[in-house]
Amino acid sequence: MEKELVIFKNSPERLLVILDEEADFRTVLENLCGKIKKNKNFFKGASLRLKYKGRELSEKEEKLIVQAFEQIGEMDVIDIGKEIEVSHSDEGNSFRGMAYGLFDPEDGERPAKRSRGISLISEGTTAYYKGSLKKGQRIVYKGSVIIVGNVERGSEIFAGENIIVLGSIKGRVYAGGKTLKTGVIICEQFDAEDFSIAEIKETEDSFYEDLKYFKTGLFSKKNVEMKVLSLRESRITVDSLHDL
After folding, report:
1. Higher pLDDT, 112 or 37
2. Exposure string (b/e) for 26-46, b if CB count within 10 Å is 16 or more?
C-alpha cells in the first residue's frame, strides 16, 4: 500500500494537514494539490484556519500551501501555523499544591473557599509551554495550560481546565471546556481578541470597566498584579490575585 504523504483532519476550529516528513517538499506539495482538487467541492467557499504537523515549514513553504488551498480549493485561509503538541501523560505532569495562593495548604488537594472571586478551582493535569505563542500557533489540552511567555494576537489556547499566562494575553483563550465553570484565566496583562470560560462570554460594560481599572490602576504600580478572570453567577468577572 502506497504511503500517504498528506492527510486531512477536519474539526470545527481548524483543518489539520499532516505532512510527510521524509519526502521532499515539492513532492508533498504536488500531493497536497491533488488532494485539494479531489475535495474541491468540500473546500469551495469555506473560511478555515490551517494547522499542520509532521514537518517544519519555512515561511515561503507556508505561503505555497496557502496559495494551493485558495487557488485550487477556492477557499479563504484565515491563517496558517504549526500545531503544537503537548503531552497528555498523567505522570510527572501534574500541577498540585500552592498555585499562586489559590489552594489552602492545610486542605491538601482540596481547593480553598474564598469569600469573593474564585470559590474553588479544579486541579488536574497541566501542560507547560516555555516561550510566547506566535500568530498561527495553537494549543489544545484536556487539563490546564501554563504559558511562560505571552499569547500573541492570532494564537489560540483551548484548555479543558485553567489557563495561566506569565505574561500578556492578546490572542484567543478558552478555558473550562464546555462545562467547567470553576475554570479560570490568570495573566499579567489581558487584551484578548476573544475569550470564554465554560463557553460563557462576557459583554457587560462592568467587566470592561474593571479591566480598564486594572490597566490604569494596578499596572501603574512597580510590581505587576496578576489578574484573575473567573465565573461568578454565570458572569465573567476580573479581580486582582492579591485581592482574592
Report:
1. 37
2. eebbebbbebbeeeeeebeee
Query: Residue 40 above 90 pLDDT?
Result: no
Distance from C-alpha of 143 to C-alpha of 158, rounded to nearest angstrom: 9
Indicate the pTM of the whole model.
0.54
Whether the Cβ atoms of residue 122 and residue 162 lie closer than 8 Å to each other: yes
